Amino acid sequence: MSDNDIDMISNNFVEQHWQKPREVLERYFKRQNKGELHILIAEYDNDVAGYTVLYPEASNGPFANKGIPEISDFIVFMKYQGKGIGNKILDTAEKKASQISDRVSLAVGMRHGYGAAQRIYVKRGYVPDGSGVWYNNILLAEYADCKNDDDLVLFLCKEFISQFNADHKL
After folding, report:
1. What residues contact 105, with CB distance under 8 A and at least 6 apart?
2. Do residues 53 and 37 lie in contact, with contact meaning Cβ atoms separated by under 8 Å?
3. Most CB atoms within 10 A, among 69, 92, 134, 160?
4. What is the pTM of this model?
5. Per-residue pLDDT tens for 6-52?
6. Would you kindly state where each structural domain of the chain is located, as residue ranges?
7. Dihedrals φ, ψ of 60, to 5°?
8. Would you say residue 169 has pLDDT above 60?
């Protein structure tokens, strides 16, 4: 991410009527410059088509503090969807994550707006961790009331096939 990307990303959020405070993007940029995370940007026609954040280690959910990288804030702006950009972003994030660990984690929202993301993750081999749904970074108790908003998530994980396993299939 460069300084100029922040303006383009902010403009794209405004254009599709999504609220994303510019301060969040500026915080990402500062943390990237400190080496605390990686921001992967996809460009299309001299615009930011999408991005994701890759944390070297998950800090929330069932994968927290286990040395497993986490993909977060995965976005492909609506006007660029259906062009394979999301898969390219995830290819890059997974390649970078595979240099850190033999797997990568992420959380996906449960509401309707996350349907495309849910499908792409399953197609790419992500599976639920088995703990159930989480709300506001806390495992939701059985039969608990909750709100189906952006904070209701399911954690998924993808294991990378090591070269050894690929060469020595049973």
Report:
1. 58, 61, 63, 68, 69, 70, 71, 129, 155, 156, 157, 158
2. yes
3. 69
4. 0.90
5. 999 999 999 999 888 899 999 999 999 999 999 999 999 999 999 99
6. 3-167
7. -135, 160
8. no
